[in-house]
Amino acid sequence: HAADAHRTDLMTITRFVLNEQTKYPESRGDFTILLSHIVLGCKFVCTAVNKAGLAKLLGLAGETNVQASYQKKLDVLSNEVFIKALVSSGRTCILVSEEDEEATFVEPAKRGKYCVVFDPLDGSSNIDCGVSIGTIFGIYMMKDAHEPTLDDVLQPGKNMLAAGYCMYGSSCTLVLSTGKGVNGFTLDPSLGEFILTHPEIKIPKKGKIYSVNEGNAKNWDGPTSKYVESCKFPEDGSSPKSLRYIGSMVADVHRTLLYGGIFLYPADKKSPNGKLRVLYEVFPMSFLMEQAGGQAFTGKERALDLVPTKIHERAPIFLGSYDDVEEIKKLYAAEE
Ligand code: AHM
Ligand code: MG
């Protein structure tokens, strides 16, 4: 349609968040400003990821990160981009990044009331082969104007004010929740704007896909093994589930959110707390899942109830469609 080609009445992410925030009379635009800085970081990283193959940005940066895995140049760059974007927003006071062993306390002159926890570029094993990777973030608010301490970020996930991720895939997609449902925005490269393309995302109540690194099966516990077995050999006569596993949490969770099913990174004998990080991987994704009508469970409790004691703490995670997570909860309950 000719008229569509000239549509200018687009719901950009800034317009969307402004609309949401103006419903609060006390809102002074701080959250919108913070988010616009996060969005800028995502656009920057998106461009860098797209150019990486050409610009020879790929490869080892010559440093090892706190997780002792090799840090790629794009990881380093993305971390710098987000730290700078967040500090310069003037709205943050504590930043926790997967790439930095210590939290960053913003200097008083640039301080604001928000704490941001993030993984600037997740899916490190997929960087060099052009498979989807992403940024994950969660936002807490300081309760009052005290001197910031680590306790301000060591809060249960249910206290998050907002969470989201940006996926650098076949398109650049930003999925966000400010606690009133989940919305998805796609970057229009010609405009440089994220446009609302997936309003009010709801995860299907039950799905047909399971997503897990089955290479770890040898070391799984009973409930996880039983669950995955039941995905392949269902006892109720239903069809087996399909397996999809990318190995990029953002991409695996994004598919789970849109198509339904379950994503799991369970505990195993070698990693009793699983692999994924509570603050900037487990919490933001669990927040989004619940906001979309799904569930997130650690094998012991509702994921968002967990109270972290260290900023880089790990936890097992089972998240996705309500009914599918309910199954795994039953199996863990039966163990007790
Ligand atoms: P990373 O932070 O080193 O990228 O690791 C996190 C990633 C997640 O994106 C993904 O869900 C998981 O690791 C995959 O782990 P595995 O390769 O053990 O299956
Ligand atoms: Mg990560």
From TrEMBL:
Cofactor(s) needed for function: Mg(2+)
InterPro entries the record matches: FBPase_C_dom, FBPase_class-1, FBPase_N, FBPtase, Fructose_bisphosphatase_AS
Subcellular location: Cytoplasm
Predominant subcellular localization, coarse grouping: cytoplasm
Keyword 4Fe-4S: no
Alphabetized GO MF terms: fructose 1,6-bisphosphate 1-phosphatase activity; metal ion binding
Hydrolase in keyword set: yes
GO terms for biological process, alphabetical: fructose 1,6-bisphosphate metabolic process; fructose 6-phosphate metabolic process; fructose metabolic process; gluconeogenesis; photosynthesis; sucrose biosynthetic process
Fructose-1-6-bisphosphatase class I N-terminal domain span: 11-199
EC numbers: 3.1.3.11
Entry-linked PANTHER family: FRUCTOSE-1,6-BISPHOSPHATASE-RELATED, FRUCTOSE-BISPHOSPHATASE
Family: Belongs to the FBPase class 1 family.
Protein's recorded name: Fructose-1,6-bisphosphatase, cytosolic
Provenance organism: Capsicum baccatum
